[in-house]
Amino acid sequence: MNIDSVDLYYLRMPTVTDAADGSQDALLVRIRAGDHEGWGECEGSPLPCIAAWCTPMSHGACRPVEDSVLGMPIDEPDDIRGINALVRDQSLDLLQAAHTLSGVDAALWDLLARAREVPVHTLLGATTTHAKLPYASVLFGDTPEETLERGRECRAAGFGAVKFGWGPFGRGSVDEDLALAEAAREGIGDDRHLMIDVGTRWIDDVGALEVRARRLAELDVTWIEEPFRSHELSAYAAAAAIDPHVPVATGEGAHEPAIAEQLIRHGRIDFVQIDAGRIGGITAAREVAEFARDLPVQYVNHSFTSSLALAASLAPYWDLEDSRFCEYPFAPSSLCREMTTTNIEVAADGLVHPPEAPGLGVTPDERAIERYRVPLEISVDGQTLFSG
Ligand SMILES: [Mg+2]
Q: How far does Cα 130 stand from its chain's mean position?
């Protein structure tokens, strides 16, 4: 079969705020081939992603993503890998292409797996699966007291691991940061995993981590996330040598597998966090998972929007037994909760289990899409390039 159509849907909450909540808008991708259909989601600003899909060619290595997708055959997993490679080649100089490709690639895996009536991870070659321990992802409170309370809520909700991030952490003094971390630990209790997300706020300042390391180690922090920006390889390598060692997690900013692989190999990170909606889809994420499989690093998904994005982010590493954790959006927007007819739930045993349904195991709700869809038309020189 060949790819007959690709439809992009720009969805948005009625009001978008400056809160660090990435679930306020979304870009969905629907692909049809023959009698089959698949869905994916891009983790990127919707309009630039749509532009990358249909923009007029700038030159031979800066083509719109659609040039590498429409009409292509899709009968085998290698066809999807071929499309992925072609987009990277033909859209080499189009930086937003990776985000657009991510949703397209996920939709292609969903489509082909549905056609064969198997889950995507089976199509990827996974022969075993291992349930993951979800961590609730929450913001630090503005004060230690608020953080303590938020930790108690997560504990009461049954999560075995909780990640606190953003908010005031990293903006104030060392003592203020440590008071927040101590409140988080007290709130969730000593028997739960505690992660802390710095959100790249220290840029490349290794000393900022070093001066907090002893106390963070005493608080038994499972990882400190994104202390530095994605490409600060030297800072990550220096952090790996700090004594006592605080495990480091990063990788969500990677928009191609090579960035993540450099962070593992040269930045010597302990956890690599991959967003399949950014890195180039399930194909690219699986490449990193395979790379990480036999190295001293755990693969973790990065995902904070809908169950569709979550399913795509989980598909690449169900068979990695040593990669135990998964990010689980704790309180996404109503748009992301309503976008699909089924949601990925935490089971009674406190774990997230692999879907058994064909494809990604999650189906978008077309009525919800209509409720949140933003009509859009892009025209250039009187010619309509996109309408949806
Ligand atoms: Mg993060």
A: 19
Q: How far is the CA of 80 from the centre of ligand 1 (A)?
A: 28
- Between the CA of 245 and the centroid of ligand 1 the distance, in Å, is 20
My answer on whether 115 and 152 are in the same domain is no
In the prediction, which pLDDT does 75 show?
Answer: 98
- Torsion angle defined by CA atoms of residues 271, 276, 279 and 282, in that order, rounded to the nearest 10 degrees: 110
Find the CATH number of the domain harbouring 287. 3.20.20.120
Which pair of structure tokens corresponds to residue 309?
A: 């994005």
380 Cα: distance to centroid of ligand 1 (angstroms) = 37
* Domain boundary residue, one of 319, 338, 357: 338
Tens of pLDDT, residues 292-314: 999 999 999 999 899 999 999 99
Query: How many CA atoms are closer than 13 Å to the CA of 73, on its beta-carbon side?
Result: 5
β-pairing verdict for 221-225 and 193-197:
parallel
* Ligand 1 geometric centre to CA of 233 (Å): 17
**Residues 114 and 197 occupy one common structural domain:** no
CB-CB contact of 42 with 99 (8 Å): yes
240 and 380 assigned to the same domain: no
Ligand 1 center to residue 155 CA distance, Å? Answer: 20
Residue 119 token pair: 């889950």
Please report whether residue 344 resides in a domain: no
Backbone angles phi and psi of 146, in degrees to 5: -65, -40
Residue-level pLDDT at 304: 87
Provide the domain limits for residue 221.
133-338
Ligand 1 geometric centre to CA of 371 (Å): 29
More confident residue, 194 or 342: 194
Compute the distance from residue 134 Cα to the ligand 1 centre, in Å. 15
Q: Calculate how far, in angstroms, residue 32's C-alpha sits from the geometric centre of ligand 1.
A: 33
CATH number where 86 lies: 3.30.390.10
Residue 116 burial (10 A CB sphere; 0-12, 13-18, 19+): middle
What pLDDT digit, counting tens, does each position of 202-225 carry?
Answer: 999 999 999 999 999 999 999 999
Question: Do 28 and 172 lie in a common domain?
Answer: no
Residue with tokens 């004594």: 243
Q: How many domains does the chain have?
A: 2
Q: Is 125 left (phi over 0), alpha (psi -120 to 50) or beta?
A: left
Based on the fold, state whether residues 52 and 152 are members of the same structural domain. no
